[in-house]
Amino acid sequence: MESLTRHTDYGNEPFDETSALANPFDQFALWLSQAEAEDIYEPNAMVLSTIDPDGQASSRTVLLKDLDGSHFVFVTNYSSRKGHALEANPSVSLLFPWYSLKRQVIVYGSATPAPSEVSDALWNRRPLGAQLASAASKQSQVIASRAELDAQMAALEKEFEGVENIPRPENWGAFEVTPHAIEFWQGRSMRFHDRIRYRKGQDGNWLIERLQP
After folding, report:
1. Which of 45, 54, 187, 195 pairs as cysteine with 102 (C-beta 3.0–4.6 A)?
2. Counting Cβ atoms within 10 Å, is residue 90 exposed (0-12), middle (13-18) or buried (19+)?
3. How far apart are CA 76 and CA 186, in angstroms?
4. Which of these is catalytic: 81, 126, 188, 191?
5. 197: Cβ–Cβ under 8 A, 6 or more apart, which residues?
6. Segment 78-105, tens digit of pLDDT
7. Whole-model pTM above 0.90?
8. pLDDT on residue 2
9. What is the mean pLDDT of each run of 10 residues along the chain (213 residues)?
């Protein structure tokens, strides 16, 4: 258990109100570009947390597919567990865990299905293999074996043999997360971290406030 209790010092790189950009999307884009420059594996990976229809919390890692200045965008199968959860309760959190930079960003907001043209554009950006995998899988449903899953894929590959871009399934598409708060966390020495939160005010403008660590 020593490895679990050993203290790691996070250093003293500050992040405070004076250096925070006025718009959280600009600040996020800056931190994302810095994560990309550090060659972090899939820096656009984020932990999406939802609430199931029965009230059970659920989390999984998905990829940020777009950032348009108003929304964080990801894609999924609408019939999956998270698809059903979002249909029942659109409240979500997104966590970007950039551990090697001693940083994390947490987004709190509401997810709604994106317009069909957004989903179409994101589908068409996917490599053929990813399109086939998304179309072949009845995501989150129980299946007897890997062999049966592979058979579903093989049947779809045969059906669309020679096709460069298969049609987007009706049950696959994008969600747009509209945030009402975004927290930027910077690790500091002695666990005395910097936490800067952007919060949407009643006038629609972003407020910047510091949270105690």
Report:
1. 187
2. middle
3. 30
4. 191
5. 181, 182, 183, 184, 208, 209, 210, 211
6. 999 999 999 999 999 999 999 999 999 9
7. yes
8. 65
9. 75 90 98 95 98 96 96 96 96 97 98 97 94 89 90 90 90 97 96 96 95 96
| Residue reference for tokens 């995998």 | 133
DSSP element (H, E) containing 206: strand 206-211
Nearest CA among 178, 177, 181 for reference residue 208: 181
The Cα 188–Cα 13 span in angstroms is: 7
Tokens read off for 188: 């500091």
What amino acid is encoded at 131 in this protein?
Answer: Q
Residue 12, both tokens: 């003293």
Annotation marks residue 191 as catalytic:
yes
pLDDT at 7: 78
